[in-house]
Design a protein that fits this description.
By secondary structure, the protein is an alpha+beta fold. The protein is built from 15 helices and six strands. It folds into two domains: 2-180; 202-316, no CATH class. 56% of the residues lie in helices and 9% in strands. It has a six-stranded mixed sheet with strand order 2-1-3-4-5-6, with helices on both faces. β3, α15 and β4 form a beta-alpha-beta unit. Bound molecules: zinc ion (ZN) (2 copies).
Length: 319
Amino acid sequence: MLAANACRGLWEEALKLLLQMQREKLEFDQFSLSAALSAAANLASLEEGKQIHCLSTKLGFDSNSFVENATMDIHGGLVDEGLRYFASITFEFGVPAAIEHCVCIVDLLGRSGRFREAIAFIKDMPVPPNDFVGRCLLAACRMHGNSEIGKVAAENLLRSNPSDDSAYVLYSNICATSGSCWVKLKNQISTFGIGDLSHPESEQIYRKLTELRKKIQEAGYIADTSYALHDTDEEQKEHNLWMHSERLALAYALINTPEGSVLRIFKNLRVCGDCHSVFKGVSSIISREIILRDPYRFHHFSGGQCSCVITGDNGIGNL
Ligand SMILES: [Zn+2]
Ligand SMILES: [Zn+2]
């Protein structure tokens, strides 16, 4: 748990767990101490780092490469030193590398932005990579804003654990600066930006949107152009609204999912009020449940209504 917190950048949480372990007189292993050291390093808590190092010496772990390795981290991320230690335990001391050691290496490489090496390392790891490896990589991608590798890492995590949504959350943080939506189908993530034309199924997506637009207009939907950008005429404003990433993602999900299944769409910014109305309208004409998750809440659309109806559409805010 401590390592998981450290991997996900929750440094303070990691250190709190260390203190709790100490209070409850639980035994520390090299891995928990190493993760705690990394946490201290990231918080630039030299004092805590020193204490942890002292503790590890007292417990006789000082000769352990990975406490050293994490200590190196405190002194400025000497990744190569870490790699050398890793090599030395396997080759010189003949200790088989455990998954925990591999996680540390991926973490070290990732945090210093050496993604190509991190990936090469993962491919050649003596033990199969687990979720921690993926999370460390994803956390590093977030730190360095590397959405390309972040996407691959998120997809791998989803493949190994399809019900765990936290990979989306991490991935969404990577894309946070550019309003985008994504849909997961068969453990593959498709991302859409505003007015995106890059998707291989773009043509079908826009055709589907035209069809949906016509149907919901017949059912009474009127665009609220106050959500569109200014400086354009009404018609252009409405046209622009139909470029919003959540609608592209919705059309794509509709095309590619079996009749009757629940549609799941993720957005990294708050859904705009007009898209919210469109989703309500679509849920009434297609009689399918749509779940839209934005950073604020889950929206469950069904039968023309949304679960967030209590606060009304005014609660959505005008993005
Ligand atoms: Zn919108
Ligand atoms: Zn809602």
